[in-house]
Amino acid sequence: MRGASQAKWVVAAVAVALAATACGSSSSDGASSGPVNAQGTFSYQSSEPQNPLQPANAMEVGGGRVIKTLFKGLVDYDPSTGKLRNQVADKIETTDAQNYTVTLKSGWTFHDGTPVTAQSFVDAWNWSANVKNNQINSDWFSDIQGYDAVHPDKGDPTAETMTGLKVVDDTHFTIALTGPVSYFEYKLGYTAFSPLPKVFFTDPAKYGQSPIGNGPYKFVSWEHNKAITVSAYDKYEGLDKPKNSGIVFKNYSQAEAAYKDLVSDNLDVLDQVDPSDLASYKNDLGDRAVDQAQGAIQSISFSLYQDSWKGQDKAKVRQGLSMAIDRDTITKTVLQGSRQPANSWVAPGAMGYKDNTCGEACTFNPEKAKQLITEGGGVPGNKITVLYNADGGHKEWVDAVCNSIRQATGVECVGDPKPDFKSARDLIKNKKVDGLMRTGWVQDYPLNANFLRDVYGTGAAANDAGYSSAEFDRLAGEADKATTVEKTAELYQQAEAQLAKDMPAIPLWYYKTTAGYSKNVQNVKYDSFGDPVFTQVEVKQK
Amino acid sequence: MGRFVARRLLQMIPVFLGTVTIIFFMTRMLPGDPAAAMWGDKAADPAQLAAFKHRMGLDVSIGRQYLNYMGDLLTGNFGETMAGRKVIDVIGEALPVTVRLALLAFVFELVVGVTIGLFSGLRRGKAFDKSALVLTLLLISIPVPVLGFIFQNVFAIQLKWITPTVQDSMNLGQLILPAVVLGSISLAYVARLTRTSIAENLKADYMRTAVAKGLPRRKVIGTHLLRNSMIPVVTFLGTDLGALMGGAIVTEGIFNVKGVGNALYHAINLNEGATVSGFVVVLVLVYLAASLIVDLLYAVLDPRIRYA
Questions:
Q1: Are A226 and B258 in contact (CB < 8 Å)?
Q2: Residue A219 lies in a domain
Q3: What is the pLDDT of residues B130-143, one digit of tens each?
Q4: Which residue among A161, A318, A369, A413 is least enclosed by CB atoms within 10 Å?
Q5: What is the CATH number of the domain that holds B260?
Q6: How far is A135 from chain B (nearest CA, A)?
Q7: Interface test mutation site (partner A, options B28, B30, B41, B59, max chain A beta carbons within 10 A)
Q8: Which chain B residues touch A419 with a CB distance below 8 Å?
């Protein structure tokens, strides 16, 4: 019964469009569409938030998705095109990618009626970044000047505010970063950068239980472990005005139970189909079934910090192992079509995604695989292990990958299960893995830099392989200094080419949103974060 | 009688302390760092991690943590969850749901189980007895999840009598189906225990006496036979009540009932030692109380049993 036990970690939580490769089926509201009840509310499969509902305090989907409906930041991502668009911001100007001037639109209000001003943003960011307030996403503010003072590695903060944030007047403020970050605007689309009303700071704990935001929905109630209810905010100024009058985030501990409720129309919108119903869900739901690519990738990384994987020759061995994996067959059979084979380190849907950057190395070719492994001096001991957490439903595909490698190359390959996510992460984080390990990445924001620099840059927090390439770091550094996002994305594509040469991690497949909705609703679309576009859901008249 | 109860209550103290101690160390020995896991795939912020551990009292030695925990427990403080909620609040939300579910299941297995057992025992070897044996065998051999899925499919998806999962966990009507699933295995045991016990006692001397005295059949069976045959059944039911309260993880998951099982499952997944031990403390108390009541019931049922 541990099917969907592992918490899903999603960081950014705003909508983005799908790539061209997405096999979208959610747009098919033809046969079942009907008159819309604008007063209708719908339910969504959710889980209990792990933290109070404060904008910078949700890293998992349970809290993240609720916060996304309650708050709206300067910018967000257009769900139909994936482009960054202004919401509370009227414009964000910069000449050097380091100093930004933000102009706000007027007329935005919080749900308590107070206006959203430049001060609302600056106060919120200062509070969220402060180490004393223990916000789980506080490191998102680390680009801003003066972050070190409010969030030192040890000890108490020496300042209450970041020097990089200055309020000019009610509708203007400036942001100074410690260095140029050309895609900083992309980061601003994340909910951690939401504004907070004055009243929040009087009792943050209380407003974490009953939040007051400025988003399309306002908070109604939170029955712990049961449901969170939000209703449409009629004075919402954003571009995405809700087409329904509210959402009930209904708590399910078992995905199977949620699926049963969906099939019988007792639940309206599903998060993910549970593994045991994957084979039949398209049959059960017909054109209400959803199957499309997500901005997340699964890979296996090498413990490059171990002697056995050092040396330039070993890159060939790693490429050979990648070639020995029959991604097409495994995604179709073992994973029942719930994943899409990967041939790049960036998931489709992200800006700067380039098809087939992995090239030949991600194409199944047993002959060439064997040859490359021999040329590279073989695998130490002719045996590899793949470390994974046994509580996340990974056993089946790890075994399949190992079988594929064994049959194609004769290299002995076995899975190395650790009892749960936490213990596997402990070993990986402390660089104590001996061999290969399961790794994955869910986009924080839909830009290739997020898939590359945050995972493969030297010393990056999620660089589990311990990969360090001077060439990659040089290109990434240049990309970060570029003044346009387009240039950044292009330079990161060049950096990605270095990954194909060194192969620190084998890309396996991209995640897909396999979900669906009930007969009570229509116009249900999912973005590349796997979240439904809540504001667009239409409730049908009964 | 009074001395017996007093002695039993005193005996409960070491049992209670022992179980709480064992559970405390077991949950704390689970692999992985619950605090660091809050950051998911990302590296935890060291300063915040330290602050978090300090708030949860995880930054001192395990022995110190134990003393702190036991000290807090004596003052009725069950600690906090990772999300900063009081564990006692979480228990307070989940317990009423599970009490309802467990009592429904208990009544179901008691009434239906004893009835089936009684008639089977009285008509040993007859058609009713044989079909009851087959039915109970079936119930014992079908795992709870399978039974739950069958019921969901038949009654909710096919017949549409009910919703597949419980929409309101406090609604007794909606809890009936999960209670039937939860109580079904125990029902089979109750029926079989009653049947055997009835069949044995039918041959007892006091039964022959009662019949010879010319008592009406109703009284012979109701007062003498049934009452004396209930001792093994009551023993089973007593321990089963505790199991129903704590062991409903699977059933509560299938039917999305927001009770103790669900909360425990969630807490174990998040490695929340304080919540897990909090629930176990409550469950231990339930077990102890149930077993005391069972012992006292013996004397009520069988006049030959006396407590000094």
A1: yes
A2: no
A3: 999 999 999 989 88
A4: A161
A5: 1.10.3720.10
A6: 8
A7: B41
A8: 31
Query: Strand pairing of A383-389 and A436-442?
Result: parallel
With respect to residue B286, please indicate whether it lies within any of the assigned structural domains.
Answer: yes
Q: Quote the CA–CA distance of B268 and B265 in Å, as a whole number.
A: 5
Confidence band, pLDDT 50/70/90 cuts, at residue B55: confident
* Interchain pair A136, B169: CB under 8 A: no
| Residue B3 forms part of a structural domain | no
| A154 contacts on B by Cβ (under 8 Å) | 46-47
**Residue A406: domain span:** 294-512
CB atoms within 10 A of CB B7: 12
Q: How many CB atoms lie within 10 A of CB B302?
A: 13
Highest mean pLDDT among A14-18, A182-186, A465-469, A483-487: A465-469
Amino acid at A368: K
The verdict on residue A161 lying in a domain is no
Across the beta sheet with A383-389, the strand order is A339-341, A505-516, A289-302, A436-442, A383-389, A412-418
Say what the ipTM of the complex is. 0.82
Give the list of residues 6+ apart from residue A336 with CB closer than 8 angstroms, or none: A275, A278, A279
Residues of chain B contacting A60 with CB distance shorter than 8 Å? 40
Q: Are B120 and B131 in contact (CB under 8 A)?
A: no
B199 and B59 in one domain? no
**Joined tokens for residue A451:** 């898939």
Whether the pLDDT of residue A29 is over 70: the answer is: no
Q: Are residues B161 and B282 in the same domain?
A: yes
Q: Is the pLDDT of residue A150 over 80?
A: yes
Query: How many separate domains does chain B show?
Result: 2
Domain that holds residue B282: 91-301
Q: How confident is the model over A118-144, as pLDDT tens digits?
A: 999 999 999 999 999 989 889 899 999
Which band of pLDDT confidence, cut at 50, 70 and 90, is reported for residue A32?
A: low
Residue A228 lies in a domain: no
Residue of A49, A254, A422 with shortest CB distance to B34: A422
pLDDT band at B247 (very low <50, low <70, confident <90, very high): low
* Six-digit token string for A60: 């998992």
Class of residue B54 by CB neighbours under 10 A (exposed 0-12, middle 13-18, buried 19+): exposed
- Per CB-CB distance under 8 Å, the chain B contacts of A5 are 269
**Residue A119 within a domain:** no
The candidate with the shortest Cα–Cα distance to A129, out of A103, A159, A87, A104, is A159
Q: What is the 3-state secondary structure (H, E, C) of B246-265?
A: HCCHHHHHHCCCCCHHHHHH
Are B63 and B98 contained in the same domain?
no
Q: How far is A47 from chain B (nearest CA, A)?
A: 10
Which member of B43, B85, B163 has the closest CB to residue A224? B85
pLDDT digits (tens, 9 = 90+) for B167-182: 888 888 889 999 999 9
Q: What percent of chain A has pLDDT over 70?
A: 93
- For chains A and B, CB pairs below 8 A equal 144
Whether B143 is covered by a domain: the verdict is yes
Say whether both B124 and B102 belong to one domain: yes
CA distance A88 to A74: 5
Q: Kindly state whether residues B268 and B161 are assigned to the same domain.
A: yes
Structural domains counted in chain A: 1
Is A261 within 8 Å of B163 when comparing Cβ atoms? yes
Residue A264, pLDDT > 60, answer yes
| Cβ atoms of residues A137 and A50 within 8 Å | no
Listed by number, the residues of chain A in 45-64 with a beta carbon closer than 8 Å to a beta carbon of chain B are 48-52, 59-60
Same domain, B279 and B219: yes
B97 interface with A at CB cutoff 8 Å:
no
Cα separation, A222 vs B92, in Å, equals 16
Cβ separation A254–B51 shorter than 8 A: no
- pTM greater than 0.90: no
| pLDDT band at residue A5 using 50, 70 and 90 as cut-offs | very low
